[in-house]
Amino acid sequence: MAESTDMTTTAEVRFADVPWDALCLALVPGLGPRTYRKLIAAFGTDDQILQSPVDSLQQVSGVGPKLAAAIKTHGHRREAEAEWLRVQQAGCHLLAISDPAYPTGLREIPDPPPLLFLKGGLRTSDALAVAIVGSRHCTNYGIQTAERLAGGLARAGVTVVSGLARGIDAAAHRGALSAGGRTFAVCATGLGTVYPPEHRELAEEVAGSGALITESPMLQAPVAGLFPQRNRIISGLSLAVILVEASRKSGALHTARHAVEQNREVFAVPGRIDSDASAGCLDLIRDGATLVRDVDDVLKSLGPLSRPVPRQTRNEKVEVVHHPIELQLSDQERTVLNLLAMEPRAIDEVVRESGLETSRVLTTLTVLEMRGLLTRHPGGQVSRR
Fold it and tell me: Helix-strand-coil percent breakdown of the chain, rounded to 5?
């Protein structure tokens, strides 16, 4: 594995050693994530699955004679070692679901990938991620909007997730890269087979400023059924999914459905009412998706994070984000907010510790209250909301 530095100073994530048993199971044809979870529930560990006899494997719902035999014939070290060599030669990493570095949000979806193949790196701050997806056959309006939203999110410190496809996906990645931000590309193919092929250079840029991620073995070629399946990973890595342009037949609508199932927010950008390219987005808005015009709409509509996320600021300090709207705060607003806790404390204490003029602190507290980030209490006290 590539060496990483301490995550408390650089927020880089350190991976564990090669997950050999997980890699063996990932190479078993026909073994999907749902059946894998049933096997883990029955046997406890990857190692116990591989060691179990065929008769015992077939006792698990969804495991027939063919799959049980495949686990015994494909689940051996020799094939895993050959795949690991391909992983190393491509400069990639492996991340098993049992690894503490595995993305927490993705682990909690109904059918998380047991093993991820990655090229690039993960950071703790990547928990602040939003997906931008849409049609391959998009308009100039769609491309410009995707680039603008991605750039704004990236500048706010949000990791932009998409699928490396033509059209809106590529525009989202490029928007994040142009803003100097982080972006993830979730691939349906193996990382040894970039698809579409004209995005090889873009894929390298994404890997250098985020990560390429897939559940497919290195040499997996593009197969139609893999694209809808990978969409659950796009939404699973994200706090929310934004659809920029999508017709009623667009595969991006699969990502929106996964987001709903995973309890993620769904946003949609409105388009012309007579444009087929925006028909799917308009349907989503009609059915309850949040209409999005800019980055402020996104960050204001996201709820508080289920877990606070540490991230580095521009001056290399580490701060903890409790709500995405905090990413839009000025340095002074952020300084004051970081002095507040969930328990009430006196405003005089906040003024003293901030080192700022009393009038500036009072003004800032009013702004934070208007943004819904603090609560005032009797006796001149305030707390985080």
Answer: 45, 15, 40
Packing angle of the helix pair 226-236, 252-261 (nearest 10 deg): 50
Distance of CA 365 to the CA centre of its chain: 32
233: domain CATH number is: 3.40.50.450
Tens of pLDDT along 32-54? 999 999 999 999 999 999 999 99
Residues 131 and 179 in one domain: yes
Answer whether residue 72 shows pLDDT above 90.
no
List all residues 6 or more positions away from 246 whose beta carbon is below 8 Å from its beta carbon: 133, 134, 135, 252, 253, 256, 277, 278, 279, 280, 281, 284
Give a yes or no: residue 34 inside a domain.
Answer: no
Q: Please give the DSSP secondary-structure letter assigned to residue 44.
A: S
Question: Could you tell me if 137 and 107 are in contact, meaning their C-beta atoms sit under 8 angstroms apart?
Answer: no
CB count in 10 Å sphere of residue 103:
22
Q: Using CA atoms, how far apart are residues 249 and 240, in angstroms rounded to an integer?
A: 21
Rounded Cα–Cα distance for residues 199 and 366 (Å): 47
Q: What is the pLDDT of residues 270-303, one digit of tens each?
A: 988 888 889 999 999 999 999 999 998 998 888 7
| pTM of the full structure | 0.85
259 Cβ contact partners less than 8 Å away, ≥ 6 residues apart: 131, 235, 238, 240, 241, 265, 266
DSSP annotation string for 339-363: T--SS-EEHHHHHHHHTS-HHHHHH
Is residue 1 predicted with pLDDT exceeding 60?
no
Q: Are residues 368 and 251 in the same domain?
A: no
> Do residues 161 and 131 lie in contact, with contact meaning Cβ atoms separated by under 8 Å?
yes
User: Are 143 and 230 within one domain?
Assistant: yes
Q: Which domain holds residue 346?
A: 329-384
Both 145 and 286 in a single domain? Answer: yes
Report how many domains make up the chain: 2
Residues 307-340: b if buried by 16+ CB within 10 A, e if exposed: eebebbeeeeeebebbbbbbbbbeeebbbbbbbb
- pLDDT at site 5: 33
Domain closes at, from 282, 301, 320: 301
Tokens of 165: 């496809």
